[in-house]
């Protein structure tokens, strides 16, 4: 007993800390483009109605006949990220895939991607946090590297939402598209690089505002069973919009406060593309210049976990994000969940 007490009183060795770099990014979009006019031919809507309410004009959707699947998009996105990082897949210690639209329940998409790319015995798991899937995964991967248990990690965000959308449900089908994005993280001796502040939160009390009922037992007594199809995405648009507007603004403020920074200190805000009106509301609230809050929802729609890494990769390829910048990633979605990650790149 004395020996156990003595051991308990000894000072634990300090946790090793390292910097973390994003050394490469990549993304993948399906080839098929679904326009607002296309949707107007199958559901009562119009281009003007959709644009006014969401800002979406087109979105990409998978064509399985062309081999466009969740796994295929994830694999291509990470392949491109590895190429940009000049890093072979064999150097990956871990692959994390943020997704809720796996092609099969088992094995996880991360394992399928690691196998397809030749990552050897790299660990792999999927993380299901809907639109926050990529950011939850990014924050997890960052901290694993920071404490010294991993050196190189591939992080993917992807959702093929077209597989879970009922195209008779106007309130849902107009918003969503399919996309994948990925980054490669690596340890560095420069401890000034990496995540300066992060927020990961959820409130499960409001889960029914945005969810996928597995069967009829998951449909609430106050919901119209005649219009709800099990296995498809259901959304209380009014409540989700209210949640997103309020959360977005609070999330930015909380993250900046944790880092001891001001709005103008951040070089770029890379946000989940939920709705153009929500993004504009936050931009106006904080006085963020248009060129600091990237928007691509008009071209690709809301791609859930794929939206943040897709935006990041487009910005990198356009030369608008460079080493040394301060970048804040932001997301919110089903759960209800919300997350942020403020990085010195």
Brief summary:
The protein has 345 residues and is an alpha/beta fold.
Descriptive notes:
- The strands form 4 sheets. This protein has a 5-stranded mixed sheet with strand order 1-7-6-4-5, with helices on both faces. The protein has a 4-stranded mixed sheet with strand order 8-13-12-11, with helices on both faces. The protein has a two-stranded antiparallel sheet with strand order 2-3.
- Helix 8 (237-259) runs parallel beside helix 9 (276-286).
- The chain is α/β, with parallel strands linked by helices.
- The chain contains 11 helices and 13 strands.
- The protein has 2 domains: 19-188, Thiolase/Chalcone synthase (Peroxisomal Thiolase, Chain A, domain 1), CATH 3.40.47.10; 194-344, Thiolase/Chalcone synthase (Peroxisomal Thiolase, Chain A, domain 1), CATH 3.40.47.
- 33% of the residues lie in helices and 23% in strands.
- The longest helix has 23 residues, at 237-259.
Structural descriptors:
five-stranded mixed sheet; 345 residues; 2 domains; Peroxisomal Thiolase, Chain A, domain 1; single chain; 11 helices; alpha/beta; four-stranded mixed sheet; globular
